[in-house]
Specification:
The protein has 126 residues and is mostly beta strands. Helix content is 0%, strand content 49%. The strands form two sheets. Strands 2, 4, 5, 6, 9, 10 and 11 form a seven-stranded mixed sheet that branches. A four-stranded antiparallel sheet has the order 1-3-8-7, with no helix packed on it. The chain is globular.
């Protein structure tokens, strides 16, 4: 069974930073990309950032460009999301997800991701 586990969420003041981790485990460990998504209360789940397992290419939503950095450690089957200059509008449950299809990272859509973690809460508030 393929499993994704997120960690690193919490409460931070505006302008602060947090780092999230997404650890993949299970048989085959076959996936082609990992994505970070978030869902705020009353809103749809949105894609934040994606990274290719193979060439490390990345995608960022406009709302997080210049503030968030996604990275991977294939040896540990772990993907990280470093979030700087956090804003109250970043408050949401953050999920990581795995896609088993290869495409340029900016082409991925939510429906391409078939395995999901349980989510971790990020709250930005003073």
């Amino acid at each position: 069974q393929f499993e994704l586990v997120e960690s690193g969420g919490g409460l931070v003041q505006p302008g602060g930073s947090l780092s999230l981790s997404c650890a993949a485990s299970g048989f085959t460990l076959h996936y082609d990309a990992i994505g970070w998504f978030r869902q705020a209360p009353g809103k749809e789940r949105e894609g934040v950032s994606y990274i290719s397992r193979h060439d490390g290419s990345t995608y960022y939503a406009d709302s997080v460009k210049g503030r968030f950095t996604i990275s991977r450690d294939n040896a540990k089957n772990t993907v990280y999301l470093r979030m700087n200059n956090l804003k109250p509008e970043d408050t949401a449950v953050h999920y990581c997800a795995a896609a088993n299809v290869v495409m340029p990272t900016h082409y991925y859509r939510r429906e391409d991701f078939t395995y999901w973690g349980q989510g971790t809460q990020v709250t930005v508030s003073s």
